[in-house]
């Protein structure tokens, strides 16, 4: 197993949703409630993967949509897949759901511990307003923030990484001193590999989003852990 030490890095960048914010159960609960209201018998895994596939396709469209519109379009695709007409109020609720997604229990403490020694950054497939809500939930202020809204693209495209690397360079952090951490093999680990960034995969138990699709099978993290708390303990050991 690869050994990484906190002293090897001056900055750690993070994917946010799935890595620090536990979005998947909230998405599953929303879609299960919607499905039950329409007599659809699909289980949580089926609904989550329907969302994942729609999300990956919609995020490739250019010009890029703001994330609330991505969620609107995902909802429309899921409705069409199951032969249901979209309900405007449900659609609106889904687009606003990022503002209420909870943090993983270890996120705040882990980020605070790391920020005592290194810069921390957020590279997130989200809009600015939604991320601001999540930062309040995390009770953390990142040193560098790169959103899909800012760069006009979604990971696994490279603008997030190129912009984050540039922001950190202006803070005196060279790219070889950056560690990228994410739960998504597709959107985080594979592009980090291609850009020569060292990376950690947080393989959160019982989570599905971001683990399949284009490029996921190619992902080769330098280290795999099951939680941020485990990573922080390993880095600071």
Automatic annotation (TrEMBL):
GO terms for molecular function: hydrolase activity. The keyword Hydrolase applies. It comes from the Bacteria. Keywords: Hydrolase. It comes from Cupriavidus plantarum. Gene3D superfamilies: 1.10.150.750, HAD superfamily/HAD-like (3.40.50.1000). This is Putative hydrolase of the HAD superfamily. It holds the Pfam family Hydrolase.
């Amino acid at each position: 197993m690869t050994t990484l030490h906190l002293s090897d890095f001056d900055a750690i960048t993070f994917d946010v949703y799935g890595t620090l914010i536990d979005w998947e159960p909230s998405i599953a609960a929303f879609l299960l409630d919607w499905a039950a209201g329409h007599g659809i018998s699909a289980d949580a895994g089926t609904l989550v993967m329907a969302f994942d596939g729609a999300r990956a396709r919609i995020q490739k469209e250019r010009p890029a949509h703001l994330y609330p519109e991505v969620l609107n379009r995902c909802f429309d695709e899921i409705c069409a897949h199951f032969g249901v007409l979209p309900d405007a109020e449900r659609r609106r609720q889904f687009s606003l759901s990022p503002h209420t997604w909870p943090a993983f229990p270890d996120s705040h403490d882990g980020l605070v511990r790391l920020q005592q020694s290194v810069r921390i950054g957020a590279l997130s497939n989200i809009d600015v307003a939604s991320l601001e809500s999540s930062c309040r939930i995390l009770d953390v202020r990142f040193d560098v923030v790169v959103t899909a809204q800012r760069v006009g693209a979604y990971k696994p495209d490279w603008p997030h990484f190129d912009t984050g690397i540039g922001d950190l360079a202006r803070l005196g952090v060279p790219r070889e001193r950056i560690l990228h951490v994410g739960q998504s093999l597709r959107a985080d680990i594979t592009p980090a590999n291609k850009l020569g960034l060292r990376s950690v995969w947080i393989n959160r138990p019982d989570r599905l989003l971001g683990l399949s699709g284009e490029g996921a099978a190619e992902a080769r993290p330098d280290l795999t852990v099951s939680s941020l708390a485990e990573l922080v303990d390993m880095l600071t050991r």
